[in-house]
Write a structure and sequence with these properties.
- This protein has 412 residues and is an alpha+beta fold.
- Among the domains are: 64 residues; 76 residues, no CATH class.
- Helix content is 48%, strand content 17%.
- The chain has 15 helices and 13 strands.
- The strands form 3 sheets. Strands 1, 4, 5, 6, 7 and 8 form a 6-stranded mixed beta sheet that branches. The protein has a 5-stranded antiparallel beta sheet with strand order 9-10-11-12-13, with no helix packed on it. A two-stranded antiparallel ribbon has the order 2-3.
- Helix 1 crosses helix 14, helix 6 packs antiparallel against helix 7 and helix 8 runs parallel beside helix 9.
- The relative contact order is 0.14.
- The mean pLDDT is 89.
Length: 412
Amino acid sequence: MLKLYIYGDLNRIQSSRRLEKESHRNVELMWLLERLKPDFKTIANFRKDNGKGIKNVCREFVDLCRQLNMFNDPVFAIDGSKFKAVNNKSKNYTPSKVQFHIDRVEKSIQKYLGQMDTKDENEKETDTTVSASKLAWLEQRLIELKALEVEVNAHPDKQISQTDPDARLMKTHHMERQVCYNVQTAVDTKHHLIVAHDIVMTTDRGQLTLVAEQVQETLDKKDITIIADKGYFSRIDIKATQDLGMTVNIPQIDTSGAAKKGIFNKSLFKYDKEKDMYICPAGEELPHQRDVTERGLELKVYVNFYACRDCKIRDKCTTSSKEPRKMKRWVHEDEIDAMQQRLDDNPDIPVLRKQTVEHPFGTIKMWMGATHFLMKRKKNVSIEMNLHVLAYNLKRMMTIMGTTGLMEAISQ
């Protein structure tokens, strides 16, 4: 049965009903299955009931690649991509969407009641037709929406998907929104093999350590290099990953909003490591004054009250008429600066990441077709993704080693 699913993934046939049909007419499948003809329910149940075994096969194949020295160059690109779930956007509700529907139904009810009053006043008028059953349906729908509103507001994620409860509404390409799963992968930069993967229901931020640790565990190696895009930039996550012995390269992002405010960006304030102070664009020194903790980060605050008060370019530095411009620096910011310096010295790193990790996503989505996942709930979707990753890695190894060479390596 596993051979049937791998064949199906490699030939863009994921549906159990289509696999059943192919097993009756496809000569290759007749040979592969030794003329067995399982029905669609047997095929579907095998995937549903053997998730752990399928995951182990996927891991064992990656371990085989490791034994064949496919990962000698320990540089891995991590990225996430949104895969559509079996849940239409109309069946996903957020607080704002539920409120929109409630307002719409209430307006419709008021409209129907107004039409009823008009009909009562002018019984001879035949243009206005009001259906009592329609009004009853709207009132029942309003009750359902009110109950749904309570349920949505009580949910930790503030949204509910009715078809696939585990799927979440996420931003996709060009800021569009789809009900999706976020598939995380770590791909080696040399052979483009997927070393580790996982499925999450949030954005990429905060997932770096999760995937990087899986790479370390799979390869049984601590000293690896991780490349990711700016969507993964999180100081706490980067620090945790580097503490595990990995080298991380993620572009730093600027979320200060200084440009929109029309004031100097933080990058124009130069940090003097020896004196532990900042030099502002006016040439004044901002010494370290105190320490604060914000959002779990221990920060040093640098400020010069008197220099800022008498500064001639103050209006370009801060929008406040009383408060001086303050610089805040994380206590481990030196590690972030070193990481940024590596990226500045090696401008090809972002290009390498894009060439490496986006190729597997494109290939697997092409195999899946327009619908992407066919199963519901995170557990089942993970099984489906394990099959796709196994098929992808198998295809890559056949390209690298050849079919005969790979068969000999597996037999050994």
